[in-house]
Amino acid sequence: MLMIILARLQPLFIGANLQRTLPSSYILQNSVRFNSSSSAQQATTEIQKSLQSFDQVAEQAVDVTSQAVGEASLQFGYLQSIGLAKSWWWPPELIQHVLEIVHVSTGLPWWATITITTIGIRALLFPLYVKSSDTMARNSKIKPQLDAIQEEMYTATDMAENQKVMLKRKKLLADNGVKTRYLLAPVLQLPLALGFFSGLRGMANANVDGFSTQGALWFQDLTAADPYLALQCLSAAVIMGFMKLGGETGAQQFSPQMQKIMLVLPLVSIPATMSLSSGVVLYFFVNGLFSVLQTTLLRNKAFRHKMGIADIVKPPPADPNAPQKGIADAFKEHFDKAKKKAEKKAEQQEQEQVAKKLAEARRKNGEIKIVRRPKN
User: Fold this and answer.
1) What are the domain boundaries of the chain?
2) pTM: predicted TM-score of the whole model, two decimal places
3) Phi, psi of 219 (to 5 degrees)
4) Per the record, which residues fall in region Disordered (predicted)?
5) Which residues fall within 8 angstroms of residue 158, CB to CB, at 6 or more apart?
């Protein structure tokens, strides 16, 4: 038993004696090596904890860059600095100025800026459409008389007769309170629409800061075309809606042939606009939607009475026995009438020139005096 205990304690004594016999330099060298290895591991751990990963740094860099880009378009004069909005008189550049003012002043994203600007400009034009709707309604009441006078103008043989017919037409319009200048109100929409179209297309092509990220719903990129053609279909639907209700003023009376044309044209616009940027087609949709709401309001009897607008007169029903004309026939009839009108106008102008020459010749002949010499 004692031998077994001594055998187990022998390695401990040998280790202690070996430590006493080893030189101190050897022990110090090994302790330094152990301490240096542990210090290196500790430093590596601290570096891994203190340094961020490369992915986190890249994400932060992207965020900072995006923030800087977003702030660039929120400065007045930014569009001019990239070659846009150079003047205030050309419609596309004027619209770009207005869009920038709204965007910077409100801080709204670009899709909301386009929407608010479109609605604001259409609201400013609304009083003119009220006047135009009243004029068209009054004009519809006397349409049979106007058509008869128009036929008289076509059949007039000389300038004097044509002037009599024109005076008759002018008196008829004045007696019924029709002011033809208000009939041109919807025409004002044309330069504005062209301004929005060209202005937004230029901004999309220039890749204005925020245009590629500040869309909405499924069209986040306003510089790219709508991949689903949803905006194009919605735009065609609202155009068909307000044309069926009576146009921008709610009082326009279209012939059956013209109604067919107005239903076909919006459908044709879908493939025609499929490659346009979402920013441009968004304007088409918002503008068309405002037109539907405006037309609905102008067709409301209570609103018309409150605003003093004349009631809309429904056209007489078409004769069911009359031959039905197709779209091609309607175009041909319209072209023939326009051609006859132009020929009649040219003929009357020629007669007027001849009459002026005869009057000038008579005036000169009347001024010739016979001078006799006095008698001596």
Assistant:
1) 73-142+178-307, 143-177
2) 0.67
3) -115, 70
4) 338-358
5) 348, 351
